[in-house]
Specification:
Blueprint: H1 5-14, H2 16-31, H3 35-42, H4 50-77, H5 80-99, H6 104-132, H7 138-162, H8 170-178, H9 180-189, H10 197-202, H11 206-217, H12 225-244, H13 255-273, H14 276-281, H15 283-289, H16 295-323, H17 325-350, E1 352-355, E2 362-365, H18 370-389, H19 391-401, H20 408-434, H21 440-459, H22 471-474, H23 485-511
GO cellular component, one term: membrane
Keywords: Membrane, Transmembrane, Transmembrane helix, Transport
Pfam families: Sugar_tr
Length: 512
């Protein structure tokens, strides 16, 4: 079944929201180590304290937490489309404040405002993509957001390298200012994107919804069988939800929806306990700890890391809908866990932990063993690749596809808020961990990844190839998901047979 080019163009454009977050996360890691920025923020000191570094990175995440919660209501009332437009505008304002910052307080204010925009985008974009995408390629299209996040990270790292030689405030103002450009493009371009067909049907705009489905899924043919079938399925689901009044936050804590909420929150929390964002935020520091000499060399190593992140995300886009969510999540967690454990073990065995008399912080010196240094860097690269093809995209795909339409925006906003809350907490602790327990940080995240693989195997049911309206059946099975895989297939076959039987009986009744 072929899908129109317009579908891919619309989804790829909406995914620019991911670029905004990726670029901001990547750019701040380099900016935090720039001497002109440090001097401006501290009033002339030569280094930032660990708590200052934590707060600068963490306030963006606090804003993301708040923004993702508010976005749930905006998506419901104003539409997914208008929420993306508003979030883009808020991000531009936050980026402008950061660019013009004249001190520590102003940069913190800009980070929080930008976070409101990023949090809203991170919740509304996957929701919007999930409701535009056909079930056969839904994972691929939602994964576009993760791809743009990685592209944003990669661009940010190389912008940091490009401004390395500057010695005035332009060294950090230019990188921070660049992030306004994609947000402006998203703000203007989203005006011309279609509304979510599922949101339109919920609002009673059925003819417009059918037109959008036909335009995106069949090149404008409103009589195409798969378009008519999807349209009827959405109509049926909306009518059912209206009858049972499934539309309040309290419904999230009832029946199988509570199970979905728990799994959605867990997958977002787990995504942060991989440690990926901490490695992206503090990449230069991490590569220096692993033995890369000099700030320029560590920035270049981070840039290579960014390129690898993009390339390793592409397989997820191509194969996620074939391999399934469970396999991708479990294998990715194992790759990341083994990489982090090996990195920490080798760093502990070969590195020399000492206290920096200037900063008063613990550091690791691996300059005496170049082979061990390169091994640790390679393990970091394996870790990033493992995340990029698995928990990166699936962390956004899974929560966006599991809820009923009536509370999908509410459920997605809560799971996304859980992501940012955990990201915020971890970003506060990681700088302290890196400068106190040093190599123990890698062992901690390695163990977390192994636990995640076990949890997915035990509790997370497969959702590939199922329409958004079929998720009630997916999550009505056993709590131990690994025992329910075959049963789920049988249930769907039985459901399809019943639908065929009912359809045949309806035709017979009409004939009579």
């Amino acid at each position: 079944m072929g899908y129109s080019l317009q579908l891919y163009v619309v989804c790829a454009f909406a995914a620019i929201g991911g670029f905004c977050f990726g670029y901001d996360s990547g750019i701040i890691s380099g900016v935090l180590t720039m001497p002109p920025f440090i001097a401006k923020m501290t009033g002339g000191d030569t280094y930032l304290k660990a708590i200052q570094t934590s707060v600068i990175t963490g306030l963006l995440l606090a804003g993301c937490f708040v923004g993702s919660l508010f976005a749930g209501q905006l998506c419901e009332r104003l539409s997914r489309k208008f929420t993306i437009i508003i979030a883009s505008g808020v991000f531009v304002i936050g980026a402008a404040i950061q660019t013009g910052a004249n001190g520590y307080s102003m940069i913190l204010g800009g980070r929080f405002v930008a976070g409101l925009g990023v949090g809203s985008l991170s919740m509304s974009v996957p929701l919007y993509l999930s409701e535009l995408a056909p079930k056969e390629i839904r994972g691929r299209l939602i994964s576009l957001q993760q791809l743009t996040i990685t592209i944003g990270l990669m661009v940010a790292f190389w912008v940091n390298v490009g401004t390395e030689s500057m010695t005035d405030d332009a060294a950090w103002r230019i990188p921070l200012g660049i992030q306004m450009a994609p947000a402006v493009v998203l703000f203007v371009g989203t005006i011309f994107l279609p509304f979510s067909p599922r949101w339109l049907i919920k609002k009673g705009r059925n003819a417009e919804a059918l037109s959008v489905l036909a335009r995106l899924h069949s090149g404008g043919d409103e009589t195409a069988p798969h378009v008519v079938a999807e349209y009827d399925e959405i109509i049926s689901q909306v009518e059912h939800e209206r009858v049972v009044s499934v539309d309040s936050y309290f419904e999230l804590f009832k029946g199988t929806i509570l199970r979905r909420l728990i799994l959605g929150v867990l997958i977002q929390i787990f995504q942060q306990f991989t440690g990926i964002n901490s490695i992206m935020y503090y990449a230069p520091v991490i590569f220096q700890q692993a033995g890369v000499p000099g700030r320029s060399a560590s920035l270049i190593a981070s840039g290579v890391n960014g390129v690898l992140n993009v390339l390793a995300t592409i397989p997820a886009i191509l194969y996620l809908d074939r391999l399934g969510r469970r396999f991708v999540l479990i294998s990715g967690a194992l790759v990341m866990g083994i990489s982090m454990l090996l990195c920490g073990i080798v760093m502990a065995a070969t590195g020399r932990v000492f206290k920096n008399e200037t900063t008063g912080q613990m550091e690791v010196d691996m300059s005496g063993n170049i082979h061990a240094s390169y091994f640790c860097i390679v393990m970091v690269y394996f870790f990033v690749a493992g995340f990029a093809y698995s928990w990166g995209p699936c962390g956004w795909v899974y929560p966006a596809e599991i809820y009923p339409l009536s509370i999908r925006s509410k459920g997605t906003s809560i799971t996304t808020a859980a992501n940012w809350l955990m990201n915020f907490i971890i970003s506060l602790f990681v700088p302290v961990m890196l400068t106190t327990i040093t190599w123990g940080t890698y062992l901690f995240f390695g163990c977390c990844c192994i636990v995640m693989a076990i949890c997915v195997f035990l509790f997370f049911p497969e959702t590939k190839g199922r329409s958004l309206e079929e998720m009630d059946v997916v999550f009505s099975g056993r709590i131990l998901a690994f025992r329910d895989v075959k049963d789920a297939d049988l249930k769907f076959k039985a459901q399809k047979q019943n639908e065929k039987t009912e359809s045949f009986n309806d035709v017979k009744e009409e004939e009579v």
